[in-house]
Amino acid sequence: MEKFEINILGCGSALPTLRHQATSQVVNIREKLFMIDCGEGTQVQLRRSRLKFTRLNNIFISHLHGDHCFGLIGLISTFGMLERTADLHIYSHPDLEELLTPQLNFFCKGMHYKVIFHPINPKEQNVIYEDRSVSIETIPLQHRMPTCGFLFREKPTPNHIKRDMIDFYRIPLWMINRIKNGEDFILEDGTTVPNERLTTPSDPPRTYAYCSDTAYMPRITEQIKGVDLLFHEATFDESELPRAKQTQHSTAKQAAQIALHAQAKQLLIGHFSARYEDENILLQEAKAVFPQTFLAKENMIFKL
Predict the structure, then answer these.
(1) Interatomic CA distance for residues 166 and 185, integer angstroms
(2) What DSSP character marks residue 280?
(3) Confidence of residue 180 (pLDDT cuts 50, 70, 90)
(4) Are residues 213 and 63 in contact, defined by beta-carbon separation less than 8 angstroms?
(5) Structural domain boundaries, residue 118
(6) 244 and 287: one domain?
(7) Left (φ > 0), alpha (ψ -120 to 50) or beta: where does 260 sit?
(8) Most exposed among 41, 155, 269, 287, judged by the fewest C-beta atoms under 10 Å?
(9) Is there a single domain that holds both residue 129 and residue 170?
(10) If you average pLDDT over residues 205-213, what whole number do you get?
């Protein structure tokens, strides 16, 4: 099975603590790295993760609160010192380009690579990135400023060849890729060998949904229906529900309700308030609603 991993670099909320780093993740799909959010200290966490800097070409920023983007200028500068040459693509609300351009002009003169901004509309559901391996679409969320999540949809891989059947029917090499992609094979006498006799189905494509920061939004469940893994913020427990409503964040119970109604296979909660010395209170609250819930932790690798 091809690699599909979520690397947690930081899972804290806005107030810095000694226990958690600011929000950032790296999604590794078939050795292509996609960063989601880039809070302060992200580049140090990226070092600790042992992920290769050179494979990170795309960064997705959910919204322009500092704990989700203050690490960008430092990371961009470090890439320059490493003599990066590949373009870096940043997908975000259009205001980010206006905010970062003066800093790039002042701190990052003479870099050998380009920073290319791709404006997105957080209020709309759109595919904003696509290649042969994955498509990424926005998930409109509700927060104190324009915010969206991101839905990663892996694309199907070709079927697996049955080597013994290929040899038995003496199928030429030039036909192999066509058979992997579903074609039948026709023998010299006109007999059709059906594709299912020559291949086994590929692994089902996987999906990952990232939803942070956001108030409780049941309507997103239709878009993320059946995801293999849902990351949903769980800033507070239910005793802090008034605070959650005021700040437009979610409780652990609400995150679990989203996972339950979306029929997600697994739930990963994070973006923990600094008030919690032990996040198990959040874990237990969520597991009471959705048993397949896990706590995000720095340097965790969640494999799909």
Answers:
(1) 10
(2) H
(3) confident
(4) yes
(5) 4-157+203-303
(6) yes
(7) alpha
(8) 155
(9) no
(10) 97
DSSP helix/strand/coil, 226: coil
CATH code where residue 118 lies: 3.60.15.10
CB 68 within 8 A of CB 23: yes
| Contacts of the segment 232-236: beta carbons below 8 A, 24+ positions apart | 232/258, 232/259, 232/267, 232/268, 232/269, 233/269, 233/270, 233/271, 234/269, 234/270, 234/271, 234/272, 234/282, 234/286, 235/13, 235/271, 235/272, 235/273, 236/273
Number of alpha helices (DSSP H) and beta strands (DSSP E) in the chain: 9, 18
State the Cα–Cα distance between residues 203 and 197, nearest whole angstrom: 17
**What pTM was estimated for this model as a whole?**
0.93
Domain shared by 59 and 145, yes or no:
yes
Provide the 8-state DSSP code for 248: T
Active site residues: 67
| Count, residues in the chain | 304
Q: For residues 182 and 291, state if they share a domain.
A: no
* Same domain as 134, residue 59: yes
Closest-CA residue to 93 (of 67, 124, 114): 124
pLDDT, average across residues 93-104: 97
